[in-house]
Amino acid sequence: MPHFRVEYSRNLEAALDVPALLDRLTEVAAGTGVFPLAGIRCRALPRDSYRIADGHPDNGFVHVELRVGAGRDVPTLRRAGEAVFAALSDHMAGLLACRPIALSFEIAEIHPDLNFKVGNIRDHMRARAETAEAAE
């Protein structure tokens, strides 16, 4: 954990640079020291069906949800959330300057007893790092 879900109105897709946004969210989350890089997942979901405010076709939205494992205190999550939101706002600054956009971000904690997962990413990351070290 954490897992980022970025939802956005399709009318922003050409100007949003989604891959750069996902890279930035990953970098900032890892840089907070709160979340291990191996646990970070980012995915983006364009939305074709939406209505924003008065329904004007220029209106757009970006909503980022950060789902995290239970156990961190609120001040720690707030500090990480502020860093993520600052990076998100910075990424969106150009669009916000010229388009009607609703930008939002929230952190949701996942219930520890209702979270099921399995994976081997960490094992592969460790093996790649060992291979890189051996090559040096």
What does this structure look like?
By secondary structure, the protein is α/β, with parallel strands linked by helices. Helices cover about 45% and strands about 25% of the residues. It has 4 helices and 4 strands; from the N terminus they run E-H-H-E-E-H-E-H. The protein has a 4-stranded mixed sheet with strand order 2-1-3-4, with helices on one face. Helix 2 runs antiparallel to helix 3. It is globular, with a radius of gyration of 17 Å. The two termini are about 30 Å apart. The model has no long low-confidence stretch (mean pLDDT about 95).
Short summary:
The protein is an alpha/beta fold and 136 residues long. It has helices at residues 13-16, 18-31, 74-98, 121-135; strands spanning 3-9, 41-47, 60-69, 101-110.
Structural class: alpha/beta
Widest sheet: strand ordering:
2-1-3-4
How far apart, in Å, are the first and last alpha carbons?
31 Å
Give me the strand/helix succession: EHHEEHEH
**Net shape:** globular
Mean pLDDT figure: 93
- Number of H/I helices: 4
Given as residue ranges, the uncertain stretches (5+ residues, pLDDT < 50) are none
Q: Whole-number radius of gyration?
A: 17 Å
State the helicity in percent bands.
Answer: 40-55%
Summarize the biggest pleated sheet. Answer: 4 strands, mixed
DSSP strand tally:
4
Percent of sequence in beta strands: 25-35%
